[in-house]
Amino acid sequence: MPIDKAKLISLLSAPITTPVAVNPAVRTELANVLQDTRTLVEPQPVSDVIPFILWQNQWNDIGFFGPKKNARYRKEAERKYSRGRKVFVDLGYNIGQEGAMPHPCIVLYNFIDLLIVVPTTSNTGHKISNMEPDIQKVNLVVPKDGIIFPNETIIQLHQIRVVSKNRILKDLNCNVRDYIPMNEWIDQVNVGLKAPGLIPYGTDLQKVLEMKVCFHYAPDVFHQMLRLRQQVETLEQEKRTLTHQLDELRKTYEQVAPWKE
User: Fold this and answer.
1) Are 183 and 199 in contact (CB under 8 A)?
2) What per-residue confidence (pLDDT) applies to 66?
């Protein structure tokens, strides 16, 4: 049955330190919400519910109230992961269009117990075409290479998140720094960045990802970089012009020097 939200919120106004077990009002609402969960889950297929049960059991162990929430639950949580490393992450259960369930992810940054990751998913059935246009333009569709990407893959840059290392199920033992995109693919990315030629051929995928992140999530920094790049190109052109002029002057001087016969 539905919980009494107003009652629960009113109880928060004065912190109550006694356990729920001896508070009849809160104990009743807890029983209600757990019953609602049971009502929602029991009609679902077994194949869908087993992962939910396993996840709930894990949350009971290492979640907010879990006795092991500050422990390193798996050996994978003890490692340091380099930028670009691929790891298999249990994203848990979602709200709305958030990513959920286990997915390969690419590490963007490593902390002691946390990772910043970008999830990936196979582009089966041309899945990218069913996404909203603003999401499509943020994401990258990467051709398969049979090693780092067994299938054509969507790198979901709209789903970047921080996760506990306890969510890591497996280290996939590869790094997108070793993936060098084809020239035609680089051209397409540069067009999307509205900066043809910005990313040079031979650039590894990790650098491409970081450029896309900068373009979409730090546009002021990205455009400042473009301005500085243009200034460098202008100065290099001026240097070439001055070097040519200096060479011409040197030739002229050598021709008219008094010691020349």
Assistant:
1) no
2) 94
What does residue 62 show for φ and ψ, rounded to 5 degrees?
A: -125, 10
Residue in 186, 118, 123, 117 with CA at minimum distance from that of residue 153: 123
What does the block give as tokens for 90?
């249990």
Q: Under 8 Å CB-to-CB from 177, ≥6 apart: which residues?
A: 83, 84, 204, 205, 206
Distance CA(103)–CA(117), nearest Å, equals 11
- Which residues, other chains included, contact 28 with Cβ-Cβ below 8 Å and sequence gap of 6+? none
Tell me the H-state helices in the chain.
5-12, 24-41, 46-62, 133-138, 183-192, 205-217, 219-256
What are the two backbone dihedrals, phi and then psi, of residue 251, each rounded to the nearest 5 degrees?
A: -65, -45
DSSP code at position 159: G
Residue 125's region, left for phi above 0, alpha for psi from -120 to 50, else beta, is left
Read off the amino acid at residue 111. F
Confidence category of residue 13, pLDDT binned at 50, 70, 90: confident
Q: Could you tell me the two tokens for 43?
A: 């009609």
Q: How far apart are the first and last CA of the chain?
A: 109
d(Cα 186, Cα 203) in Å, to the nearest integer?
8
- Per the structure block, which two tokens stand in for 177? 């720094």
Residue 117 and residue 106: Cα distance in Å, rounded?
5
> For residue 12, what pLDDT band results from cuts at 50, 70 and 90?
confident
Length of the chain: 261
Distances (CA, A) of 235 to 28, 156, 228, 239, 240: 73, 38, 10, 6, 9
Residue 23 has, within 13 A of its CA and on its CB side, a CA count of 13
| Tokens 């001055």 found at | 242
